Model the fold of this input.
Amino acid sequence: MENQKNISEFILLGLSYNQNIQIFCFVFFLFCYLVLFVGNLLILFSIQCSPLFNQPMYYFLSHLSLIDICYTSSITPKLIGDLLVERKTISYGDCMLQVLILHFFGGTEIFILTAMAFDCYVTICKPLHYMIIMNRTRCNLLLLATWTGGAVHSFPQFFMAIGLPFCGRIESDHYFCDIFPLLKIACTDTYITGVLVIAFSGMVALVTFAVLFVSYGIILFILNNVKD
Done:
């Protein structure tokens, strides 16, 4: 049987076979993508041209807007273009690259939101020490940690994806490349790989949720005591 080295492309079945639905989705997704793209660009340029850029929260927000542009651009343009063609395909290399970029920017975005939660915690709970704690060096270290976290989240899933064997005609019942749709069409037992993906992603999600829950819980508790 052919393995992944002989697979040149994947066939994406997309969202629907109905042409009217595809046209509607094309207009809708194009509008949403342009709104998100232009909105994030406005946020990015507004912060860059403002003195607020020196404040940690807006410094993080500018990076969040940049990552959001990269994240949405990793999937949406290809999705929009495929809605206008009958045969929706993606090369093997582009598919693997999409898996890497998708999880890298998605993970980084989540970790930046966590860093922003820490900034809110310091603002509310330690206002007198805020400028000392959230200096530019520490902000840069936090951003470096978020990018590193995105890489740690994405590379294991990327290597699991490129290690999957594929056989014959490859049709993915999806509209972009991701690890779980690829597991469904791999010609091998993917149970262990699926468990590893769920465990790894679940661990990242659980740790992030715990940090956000605790930080905002403390903030709400302090604000409630101040109000009383």
The beta strands are 9-12, 89-91, 171-172. The two ends are 71 Å apart (CA to CA).
